[in-house]
Amino acid sequence: MKMKHATKYLEFCTKSRREFINITSEVEKAVRDSGIKEGICLVNAMHITSSVFINDEEPGLKRDFMSWLDKVAPEDSGYLHHQTGEDNADAHLKRTVMGREVVIAVTGGKLDFGPWEQVFYGDFDGQRRKRVLVKVIGE
Amino acid sequence: MKMKHATKYLEFCTKSRREFINITSEVEKAVRDSGIKEGICLVNAMHITSSVFINDEEPGLKRDFMSWLDKVAPEDSGYLHHQTGEDNADAHLKRTVMGREVVIAVTGGKLDFGPWEQVFYGDFDGQRRKRVLVKVIGE
Amino acid sequence: MKMKHATKYLEFCTKSRREFINITSEVEKAVRDSGIKEGICLVNAMHITSSVFINDEEPGLKRDFMSWLDKVAPEDSGYLHHQTGEDNADAHLKRTVMGREVVIAVTGGKLDFGPWEQVFYGDFDGQRRKRVLVKVIGE
Fold it and tell me: Which pTM was predicted?
């Protein structure tokens, strides 16, 4: 069988500085449009203060994630990165905790997910246009 | 050369709520059974309170990981997620720290590992059946 | 189109125990040498106290990352792992936070990166030879 590939860029501009957006249906559409039945799907943030991750679509839990990230990687005026004029060092750290990318199996033309898996885009320094890359390879 | 693919689901039911299981030999077998010589192998938890990660098979270190996770992402009655009746918010956070998936190179028909790399399944809300997906693509 | 693959091992020996090395150009070269135009590129540490991750080439931020890791996963004499004679349990934890691997899309023969994405090798128990694997598959 021949190898196929498809590349798609999703654009987001969050309303708040920190926000999680469920992008499962966009990723599903990219896989469907690719025509690929068996392979893998890479979904990654193209910006270094943003994440793509998989977890649960539950509003309370999403707020728990945000509060927890603020404890693990707090805002602080003392970061050396801020001497460059930036104010978003904590966003770099938060994105590191949540991850840059996910790799998802494609089986029978669909994302091969467990019962609760949902794909999220997370921005920790948002309110501007950012991109997520979806690359599907397989056959 | 033609692209090949193989998909396998591993099932686990941990004895304790939190447990690490070394799954290296199961992943090696899935690669061997696939007949794929060059490519990549995705191994991911299909549940959002479980992890797949790579580290060292050393009992002390595995206990260090568990203690550390309890500090970084502690059990707490105050999580908003618990208002839904759940009690496992910390398990979602712990799994995030440890990661959902690993992607391993397959070279010469084998997992292309460094000297100490071992694949683990980690469950943080276990004692029930959960699945791990192994997807191998290549040729 | 036919599937191609390429495998390359990069070697590093850091000057300090903890160090970040920008390896973007080495990874770019591996992709160029592979002749692969569309696919994915896996870059992973082959050692369990080292990381490969993507972030920003900014010296202050890199020092912020190191200080932050020392808070999240501190050096401590009390780790059980140290009863084996090792002294690097914190390095295992730090590598877990930063991640073992990245998967990068290859589009038009190049790493398909956003504006600030750079690939780093991070060693948390360095000053000895360690390897990073680069595997490119695609066509």
Answer: 0.98
